[in-house]
C-alpha cells in the first residue's frame, strides 16, 4: 500500500465503523474489549499513524498558525477588527486544512506563550498584531526561530514580512473634509498611546492640521473605549474654546462621545461634528449616523495568513501593501453653525 | 536522566544558545552546517523529542481544545460574547499549557471541520456554542468520539455535558419592570430564529406577558444585527397601535432600534422604552443609556473549558448551571407618558 493508511482502511480491515476506530485509537470508553483489540491489531498491521502528530514529527510542520492577542478581554470584546480578521485568516487556512491556535493573553504571560508555541512546535508561525512602541515581539519570535508576519507597517516589523493596511489617508481625508466644512478647532481623542496604530492616527491628524494651516487642536486620551471616549468628549466640551469637531481613534469611543455630547445638550452635527474609525456595523445605525473610516479587516486577515504561509514555506515573503482605509462621510459631520464660537 | 530532556539540555550539551537549538530542530535556515549537525547529535544523544507531537503520539493528547464558530463574520464581529468567552477559556487553558484551536466556519464547511479535527487528533475535545434547532453537531461529535461540552441548556446537549447560563430570568424581569412602569404593549425584536438561545429569549418574553395578563405583543425579526433592529423598530412604530416598549434580542439591535426611533422623532424613554441584552461596554454610553441584561461570558468560557477538560480526562462531567443573566435597568426605560396611546 503506497498511500498512508486512513481510519477508513483500519475500519474496513477490522470490520467496524469509522467511529469505532476513532474511539479505539483515541482510547475512549464505550467499546467492547475484544472489538478494541481487533481495531488496534488492524491499525498496527496497516501501520496507521495519527496524521497530524505524524506530520509534525516527519515534516516539522504543526499544520497551524498562531495568534496571541494581548488585550484586555473588554477591549477585545468591542473591537470588530479581530473577528473579521480571524474570519479572513480562516478563509486561507481552510484551503489547505491548517488551523489557527489562538491565545488571549495578559502582557505578563505574552513572552512565555510565544516561547511555548515555539518549543512545543504547536504552530508553524505567528502573526503579530497591535504592534506597540518598543515592541519586544519581533525580536523575540526571531530569536525563537518562529516564522513571523507583522500586521502593520514595514518599519515596525523588525525585519519580518509586514502586511500593511494604512489608516493615515482616512484621517487626512476626514480632517480635510472638516476643514472644508468650515471647522478650525478640530480635536482628536486618541487610542492607547502604546499602540503604534493609535500613535499613527494621532500623527495623521496633527500633520493634516498643519498642512491645512490650522492651529494644533486639543488632544485627549480615549483608550479606544466607550468610557474613555465619553470622558474625553466631556473634557473637550468644557474647554473655554471647545472644538467644533472631534476625530476619534475608533468608532466605539466616537459613538460614546456622540452620546456624551447629546447628554450635555450639544447637538450633533449642528454644534459638534463627530468622526470615528472602523466603520463598525453599528456606525450607520446610530443617531445621527456616524462618519467613519472603512478598512477591510477580513481581507487583511487573509493577506496576512497567505504571507505567513509563504514565510513558513520559503523562509521569507515580500511585504504586502493593501488598499488604505477610506473616509466614510455621514450625517454626524456638518458645516460649522453660524452661531458657533468656532465660526 | 529521569525527566524528559528539554531544549535547554540540548543547548548545554551542544554548547549553543537555545534559539540555535530551536532553529536546528525546526530545520530553519541560518545556522552553519556543522553547528546544526552538532545540535542534532546532542538532541539524539539526549533522546530529545518535540514535546507536543510526542505527547500526542504517546498519550493520545493533542493538548488543545477546539471551537468552531459557525456565524457570518459580520455577526461575529459585533457580538461581545465571543471575545469575552474566549478570554475565559484562556484563563483555564493557561493553567495547564493547553491551547485553543479556533475555526470560523460557514454552515457548509462545519461538518468536515469537525471530522478533520477528530481524524487529525488536532484537539482533545470541542465546545459547541450557538446551539440550533435540530442541531446536527451533538450527534456528529458523539459519532466521531470527540469529547464534547455543550454551551447551553442540558436539553440541547444530546447527552453531552452542558454548561448553562440562563437568559430567561433577565427577560422575565425586564417585562415585569416594563409592566410595573405602566406598559401594556410590549414588543420583542428577536434574534435568528434558528438559534436556540434566540428562541428561548422570545419564549421568555411571551411567557412573561402571559403571566402578567398582558396581551401578546407584536414580534419582529431582528437577526441580532443593527440593520435588523433598525428595520424592526421602524415597522413596529408604524403599526396602527405601536408598542410603548420594545425588548430586543441583543444590545446591537436595541442600540440601532433606539437610534431608529429617535430618527423618527420618537423620544426615548418618554414615548418608547427600550431594553437590550448583553450589557455591551457601549450600552451605558449611548443616549439615553440602554437598559440591558448582564451575563458573565468570561466566567462561562472558563466553566465550559473546565468541564471539557474533565470530560476529556474522565469521559464525562456533571452539567454546570451558572448564575443566570440579570436585568440592568437604565434610563432607556421609563413610565408610559400620560399622552401615550398605550396609557
From TrEMBL, chains A, B:
<dbReference type="InterPro" id="IPR028082">
    <property type="entry name" value="Peripla_BP_I"/>
</dbReference>
<dbReference type="InterPro" id="IPR000843">
    <property type="entry name" value="HTH_LacI"/>
</dbReference>
<keyword id="KW-0805">Transcription regulation</keyword>
<keyword id="KW-0804">Transcription</keyword>
<dbReference type="InterPro" id="IPR046335">
    <property type="entry name" value="LacI/GalR-like_sensor"/>
</dbReference>
<dbReference type="InterPro" id="IPR010982">
    <property type="entry name" value="Lambda_DNA-bd_dom_sf"/>
</dbReference>
<dbReference type="Pfam" id="PF13377">
    <property type="entry name" value="Peripla_BP_3"/>
</dbReference>
<dbReference type="Pfam" id="PF00356">
    <property type="entry name" value="LacI"/>
</dbReference>
<keyword id="KW-0238">DNA-binding</keyword>
<protein>
    <submittedName>
        <fullName>LacI family transcriptional regulator</fullName>
    </submittedName>
</protein>
<feature type="domain" description="HTH lacI-type">
    <location>
        <begin position="5"/>
        <end position="59"/>
    </location>
</feature>
Amino acid at each position: 500500500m503506497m498511500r498512508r493508511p486512513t481510519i477508513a482502511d483500519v475500519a474496513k480491515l477490522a470490520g467496524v465503523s469509522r467511529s469505532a476506530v476513532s474511539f479505539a485509537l483515541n482510547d475512549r470508553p464505550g467499546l467492547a474489549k475484544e472489538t478494541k483489540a481487533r481495531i488496534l491489531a488492524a491499525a498496527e498491521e496497516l501501520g496507521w499513524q495519527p496524521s497530524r502528530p505524524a506530520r509534525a514529527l516527519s515534516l516539522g510542520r504543526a499544520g497551524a498558525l498562531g495568534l496571541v492577542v494581548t488585550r484586555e478581554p473588554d477591549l477585545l470584546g468591542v473591537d470588530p477588527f479581530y473577528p473579521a480578521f480571524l474570519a479572513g485568516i480562516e478563509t486561507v487556512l481552510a484551503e489547505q486544512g491548517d488551523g489557527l491556535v489562538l491565545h488571549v493573553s495578559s502582557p505578563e504571560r505574552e513572552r512565555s506563550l510565544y516561547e511555548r508555541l515555539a518549543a512545543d512546535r504547536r504552530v508553524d508561525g505567528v502573526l503579530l498584531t497591535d504592534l506597540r512602541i518598543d515592541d519586544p515581539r519581533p525580536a523575540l519570535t526571531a530569536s525563537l526561530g518562529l516564522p513571523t508576519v507583522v500586521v502593520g507597517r514595514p518599519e515596525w516589523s523588525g525585519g519580518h514580512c509586514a502586511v500593511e493596511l494604512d489608516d493615515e489617508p482616512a484621517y487626512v481625508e476626514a480632517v480635510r473634509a472638516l476643514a472644508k466644512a468650515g471647522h478650525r478647532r478640530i480635536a482628536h481623542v486618541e487610542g492607547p498611546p502604546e499602540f503604534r496604530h493609535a500613535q499613527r492616527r494621532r500623527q495623521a491628524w496633527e500633520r493634516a492640521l498643519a498642512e491645512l494651516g490650522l492651529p494644533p487642536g486639543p488632544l485627549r486620551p480615549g483608550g479606544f473605549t466607550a468610557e474613555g471616549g465619553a470622558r474625553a468628549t466631556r473634557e473637550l466640551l468644557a474647554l473655554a474654546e471647545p472644538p467644533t469637531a472631534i476625530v476619534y481613534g475608533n468608532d466605539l469611543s466616537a459613538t460614546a462621545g456622540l452620546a456624551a455630547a447629546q447628554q450635555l445638550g450639544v447637538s450633533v452635527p449642528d454644534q459638534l461634528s463627530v468622526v470615528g474609525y472602523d466603520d463598525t456595523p453599528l456606525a450607520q445605525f446610530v443617531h445621527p449616523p456616524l462618519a467613519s473610516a472603512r478598512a477591510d479587516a477580513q481581507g487583511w486577515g487573509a493577506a496576512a495568513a497567505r504571507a505567513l504561509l509563504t514565510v513558513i514555506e520559503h523562509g521569507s515573503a515580500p511585504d504586502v501593501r493593501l488598499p488604505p482605509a477610506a473616509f466614510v462621510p455621514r450625517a454626524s459631520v456638518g458645516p460649522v453653525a453660524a452661531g458657533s464660537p468656532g465660526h
